[in-house]
Specification:
It is a single chain. The protein has six helices and 23 strands. By secondary structure, the protein is of the alpha+beta class. Among the domains are: about 70 residues; about 80 residues, Gp5 N-terminal domain (OB fold (Dihydrolipoamide Acetyltransferase, E2P), Beta Barrel); about 50 residues. Strands 1-2-3-6-5-4 form a six-stranded antiparallel β-barrel. Strands 17-18-19-22-21 form a five-stranded mixed barrel. Strands 7-9-8 form a three-stranded mixed beta sheet, covered by helices on one side. α4 runs antiparallel to α5. The termini are far apart.
């Protein structure tokens, strides 16, 4: 059984490091599930983790979310912290102040830190916590200052061990998930050594449950960024317009998709040279990534009433396939002769220089000439 707030999971990738924060990428069976900033109770077999949804979206009728351990505050920069004298501060004093500033809960021993502690407002609360030594977020969502305890031995069915990178794939049952978390001592008939786990990655799919265990510590956030860089996006993706900057668009993704950039500043490529558009904030566009590369996005189409104004600076050229024939003269009276002369002059102008400016000039001259034909001339024409 694998659920998040009671909603069934279709797949899950959960990284639990020896220190700091665990991170989970979850996909549900439909479009129902937690939303961004919701607290999340994640249950995978025998393991339960308390965290917070930091990203959520629906794509193709399926909800995907990202969950971080605790209340999600350790990734934010704290504010309003100051101590008159930091010489005798305890770990508990500093940890509690940091945790309170970002909405987290913490437990720490009351021992004196022993060194001067300097609050750095330019980095996250978690990075400030690193000055206290080791810390991690327990399964119940509470942060503990100190090292994780070692767990009991766990005998596993291990697929080939990657000794170079210190990785072993353990085929496990749902009841084994809690037993392979960091601190566990993994043994197997196929291993010549014992593995003291320093990082666990739980991989859940519809028909398989695997625990990747590492002998060395890993950074789940760095791994997530690395995986995102390898992704290729070969479809079209809806983005919402935040604002137009010159002839570029500042956009935000409509749906949260793993690895898809949340915000973009893109060029327009609508296939009309010389055409510029003014786009409305909150309108939507379709984004394409050239060669599937997430670093090469462009706006390929507009949706709904995204475009407010269209401007063009295009000069069009027209080419005739044969010379304009000279009409045979017909004597039908002064008014008709005048019209004939005006039309012949317009045709000659276009034939001599078949371009848009000459067409415009010829028609302007023709309109003026026709307008000069008097009512008297028309009467003469009618009488003939």
């Amino acid at each position: 059984m694998a659920t998040a707030n009671g909603f069934a999971l279709n797949s899950a990738e959960i990284d639990v490091p020896f220190r700091r924060l665990w991170l989970a990428n979850l996909t549900f069976t439909d479009d129902l599930g937690p939303s961004e900033n919701d607290p999340v109770e994640l249950v995978v077999g025998s393991w339960t983790g308390i965290g917070t949804c930091i990203d959520a979206g629906v794509h193709g009728g399926v909800r995907s979310i990202r969950v971080v351990a605790g209340a999600g505050g350790w990734r934010r920069a704290p504010a309003g912290l100051a101590f008159q004298n930091d010489a005798n501060l305890s770990r508990a004093d500093i940890a509690q102040a940091l945790a309170s500033s970002v909405g987290e809960s913490v437990e720490a021993d009351p021992g004196t830190l022993g060194v001067h502690w300097s609050f750095d407002p330019t980095v996250s609360a978690g990075s400030n916590m690193d000055a206290l030594g080791d810390w991690y977020v327990r399964d119940d969502g509470v942060t503990e200052v100190g090292s994780r305890p070692d767990l009991a031995e766990f005998r596993a069915i291990v697929e080939p061990f990657d000794g170079k990178n210190g990785i072993a794939d353990c085929l496990i049952e749902e009841s084994d998930v809690a037993a392979v978390m960091p601190g566990a001592l993994v043994t197997s008939d196929s291993l010549s050594i014992q593995i003291r786990v320093r990082h666990t990655r739980i991989l859940l799919s519809t028909n398989k449950l695997v625990a990747e265990v590492y002998t060395r510590e890993q950074d789940p956030f760095r791994a997530a960024r690395h995986e995102a860089r390898k992704l290729r996006f070969l479809g079209t993706y809806r983005y919402r317009i935040i604002e137009q900057i010159a002839d570029r668009l500042q956009l935000q993704a409509v749906d949260a998709i793993a690895g898809l950039p949340d915000q973009l500043l893109v060029d327009k490529a609508h296939g009309l040279p010389g055409v510029t558009t003014e786009c409305a904030p909150s309108g939507e566009v379709l984004i394409v990534f050239a060669d599937g590369n997430r670093s090469l996005p462009f706006a390929s189409a507009y949706l709904g009433e995204s475009v407010e104004e269209v401007h063009t600076t295009t000069t069009a050229t027209f080419t005739t396939s044969s010379p304009v024939p000279t009409p045979e003269p017909v004597a039908l009276g002064p008014a008709v002769d005048d019209m004939r002369a005006a039309l012949l002059a317009a045709c000659a102008t276009v034939a001599a220089a078949p371009s848009l400016p000459s067409v415009i000039s010829a028609f302007a001259t023709l309109a003026s000439s026709l307008g000069s034909i008097t009512r008297t001339s028309s009467i003469v024409l009618e009488a003939q």
